[in-house]
Amino acid sequence: MARNTNKPAVEGAKNFLNNMKYEMAGELGISNYANIDKGSLTSRQNGYIGGYMTRKLVQFAEEQLKNQQ
Fold first, then answer.
1. Distance CA 35, CA 13 (A)
2. What is the pLDDT of residues 1-10, one digit of tens each?
3. Helix 14-27 crosses helix 43-68 at what angle (to 10 degrees)?
4. Which are the contacts of 45, defined by CB distance < 8 A and separation ≥ 6?
5. 9 by DSSP, 3-state: which?
6. Is the whole model's pTM more than 0.85, yes or no?
7. Domain locations in the chain?
8. Could you say which of 5, 37, 41, 44 is the most buried, measured as most Cβ atoms within 10 Å of its Cβ?
9. CA 66 to CA 27: how far, in whole Å?
10. Could you read off the pLDDT of 46-64 as tens digits, one per residue?
11. Exposure letters 31-53 (e unless 16+ CB within 10 A, then b)
């Protein structure tokens, strides 16, 4: 049985990341992502969600860096 040992770089970010994941899935047209069996989705569908999250997180970080200047 696999176990998830991934930990967020920032404590307390887990809820934010989960909410973001569900929001990104909704934007990509995957409804009810929180309650569906992720194994029933294709690798491509799950990858889209992760890639879209990464893109948004990088965008947030770039905006923060820009605002610090």
1. 21
2. 678 787 778 8
3. 120
4. 28, 30
5. coil
6. no
7. 14-68
8. 41
9. 26
10. 899 999 999 999 999 999 9
11. eebeeeeeeebeeeeeebbeebb
